[in-house]
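FAQ
Q: What does a multi-component entry look like?
A: The components come first, one per line:
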Amino acid sequence: MEGIISINNLTKVYNSETVLDISSLEIEAGKSFGLVGNNGAGKTTLYRCILDLIEPNTGSVTLNGVDVAKDESWKHFTGSFIDEGFLIDYLTPDEYFGFIAKLHNWGKEELASFLAGYEDFFKGEILSKKKYIRDLSKGNQKKVGIVGALIGNPKILILDEPFANLDPSTQYQLRDQLKKLDEETDITMLISSHDLGHVTEFCQRIVILDKGTIVKDIQTTSETLRELENFFVKNGEEKVDEKEAL
Amino acid sequence: MYSLLWKHQWKNLVRSKYFSQGWGMKILIGFLVLYFGLSFSLLGFFMPELLQESFPSAEVLVPIYAQFVLYYMLSDLALRFFLQELNVMSIQHYLLQAMPKSKVINFLLGTSVFNLFNFFPLLFIVPFCFRVSVDELGITGGLLWMFSLLFFVFFNHFLAIYLKRVAAVKQWIFIVFAVVVATLFALNFAGWISLNDWSAVLFANLGQWWFFLIPVALTTLLYLSNYSFLRKQAYIDQWRKESKEASTQEFGYLESKGSIGVMIANELKLILRNKRTKSVLVITLLFSLYGLLFYTQPDMYDGMGWKVFVGIFMTGIFMINYGQFMVGWEGSFFDGILTRAYPMEAFFRAKFWLLVGSSLITYILSLGYMYFTIDALWINTAAFIYNVGVNSFVLLFASTYQKKRINLSKGSAFNYQGTSAVQFLVTIPLLVFPILIYQAFNVFNKPYYGLLALAVCGLLSLAFSKYWFREIIKNFNEKKYRNAAGFREG
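Then the predicted structure of the entire assembly, as C-alpha cells:
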C-alpha cells in the first residue's frame, strides 16, 4: 500500500560511509509515527532527505504522491521544524507567524483564533512581546518553530526532537497538544525524540533507526516502552563489548 | 600558563574561518598587504629626505617632525575608533579553569598590542630615529625620542580599546570625536588655526627624560583602567546584552500585496534590523555623492565616459553591494527558505523587485546631478535601465552560487566574511560591460547612441525576464543541496 509518506531505496553516503539506507518505508495517512535512535543513527539525515534539503545518493521520497525532489508543491501541505535554521531570526514571532499565514492565504482573524489556541503553550512569553526571535531563549524559539509549522493546517507534520530544550511542563503541554491534533484531525505526524516515554504515549507506530537502517518497526502497545528500553540498553552494552573486543 | 593561552590564541587564529578562505582571497589579501607594506616602508625610510625637500632651509629635522605628531595622534585615534577590532579572547572559557583571572586579563590586554595599528607607525618612527634623531639628539636622546613616541602609540591604543569597550553601544561618542577632528583639520586647512604650531609646542621636548615620563605615565594609567574595567566585567551576567526593544515598523502596503509583497517587506526588515546590512545602506548613501568628484571637475573628466561609469555605479551601488550576498544574508535560515510554502520563483521575484526599488531610489537621487549638466538625466536614465534590466539578473544568477553565511550583526568595514573570489569576478562585468557598450559608440563620436544602446540592452533583457527567471531557478535547484550544506556549516 502506498503511504502518504513513501520512501524507496533511499541511501545517503558521506565520504564512502553509508549514513542512511532505507529500502522501503510507507507511512499511512492520519497516523502518528515516531522515530527513535541514538545520536548519529541518521534521523536528521532522513528528515533532511524527506524535506528535500539534501540530495540522496539513490532513491526517492514522495509526500502525498509528490516526488519532493521534482516538484515543490509538497511545501503547501507539509509543516516542518527541524532546528533554528528554519526561523527568520530578525522578525518578531508575531511577524513570523503573519508571514507564514500569508503564504497559506490565512486572514488576520483566522491566524488570531489559531494563535489563541496556543496561549497557554506560549505562557505569555511569545506574542506581542516586542522581541526578535533571535533574542528569545532556545526553548521559546522552539515553540515559535513548532507552532509556525502548524499554520496552514498541514496534512503532514515533521518535527525533529520537539521535546528537547523544553521545560518539563511545556513538554507535557506539547505532548497533549500533539495528541489532541492526532485525535481530532487526520494529520500525519512524523516525530523523532530521545524521550521514549513521550513517543510511546501518542505514536501509533515507532521505528528504531540504527546506523542508518531500520532495525525495528513496532505498532505501539502497552509493551512497547519496555521493548524500546530493552533495545537501547542492549545497544549500549554491545557498544561497550565492541570496544573491549578491540 | 601564559604559554598555554598563547597556544590557544594561535589555534584560534589558524583554525578560524578567516584562514580557511579560498586561495583567490588569500592571494588578493596577501598582495594588498605586500603592496601597502612595501610602499609605506619606503615612505618611512625616506622621510628625512622628504622633510628636507619640503623644508629646504631647516638645519635640524626633529622639530619639524614634531610638527606632525599631533596629526598622527588625532587621525590615528579617529581611525582606531571605527576600524580597530577589539581582540576578544573569550574570558568565559577560562573562568572555571584553575587559572587566576588577573592572568587571563593581562594576557588579553598584552596580546592586544599586536595590532596593525601599532605596527604601522613603527615604519615612520624607527628608521627616522636611527637616521636622524640619534644624530641630532645623541644616542640617549634619540632612543628616548623613539620610546616616547612608541608609548604615545600605546597610549592611543589603550585609550581606543578602553573607550570602545566602555562605550560599546554609544557610537555617537565616536562620531562626535570624528567630527571634532575633521573640523580641526578643516580649520587648519583654511588657515584659521595651525595644528603644526600646536604640535610643535606640544611635542617640542621629545627626547627629554622628563617628557618621556608623560607617555609612560599615561599608558600605565590607561592600562590599569582597562584592567580594572575588565576585572569588573569578568562575570558572565555582565555580558548579557540588553535586548533592545524590537522595532514595530510595518510595511502595510507591501504586506497587503500577497506573498511576494510580504517577502519584500521581510527583506526590508532584514536590511533595517541588522548591523551589517545597515552599513550597506550608509555606504549606498555615501556613494551617491561619488559623482561630485566627476561632475565638479569638468576639465579633468570631460566627455561622458567617466560619468557613465559613475552613473552605473550610483544607480546600482545598493544592488551591487547588497545583491552580491543576496542569498547569503539569509544563510542562517536557508533550510527554512527551502521548505516554506512558496514556489522558488516567488522568492526570486521578490528579490528582483527589491533590486528594482532600490535602484529607482538611487536613480532619483542621482538626478540631482542635473544641476551640473542636463546630460546627467540621459546618462543616469540609461544606466538605471541597464542596471534594472541586465545587472539585476546577473546578480540574481550569481546569488545561486552563494553558500557562505553572513554574520548580520557585524559591521562591514574590513569585513571580508562571506567574500570569495566570485564576488570580485561578478563586479567586473557589472561595471565593465556597460562601459564597453557605451564606448563602442563613443569612439565614433556618437555618445548619445551609446546611451541609447545601454537602455536598449536593458529593455531587451527585461523582455526576456521570464526566461532569466527560469534559468535562475534551474540553477538554484541544481546548486541548492550543496549551498544548504555550506550554509549549515555557518
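Q: Is there any commentary attached?
A: Sometimes. For this entry: The first helix of chain A runs from residue 43 to 50.
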